[in-house]
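Entry 14. Ran structure prediction on the chain below.
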Amino acid sequence: MSSGVLEEAIKKASIAWISVGDAPAYALWCLPVENTLAVVSGAGEQFAPGLDRAERATVRLRGDHGGLIVQSEATVARVLPGSPEWDEIAPQLAAKRLNASGSAEDLVTRWVETGCAVVRLTPVAETVLGGSGLSSESAAAPPRETPARVETRKPFRLHKVRKR
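Output, structure tokens:
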């Protein structure tokens, strides 16, 4: 597997499917930064359980056709507020954040105040799978249980509807 495919997929990535351990993968918006991906999660941001404390995660990236083209293990490094890396990545990440209220500076300040985690995912080259290395079966999973899903009754019909 050529790492060129991985590098190209990272450059074009706006969403990655990221899982920590055996947990299900979550679709998370991300920012490509020098052959790595930057992701923000936490209060008021996207839900990524365990990502802020993980050492490794599995990253799946899609191609132009929307299907999975590459999968890799990645090391997870938390970017700490006040560090030079934070000063470089956080404003770029905030500028890419859709539907954010306030300016990018306000958003970065809120991330610090609420304890949001900005992490950098660096792929581990020897774990890259793509092309024939990926499973040809569907990776679709049944919907997870959620309290938001409510069973509904069939609608009431006053008269019988006749087929034509």
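The chain has a mean pLDDT of 85. Will compare against last week's run tomorrow.
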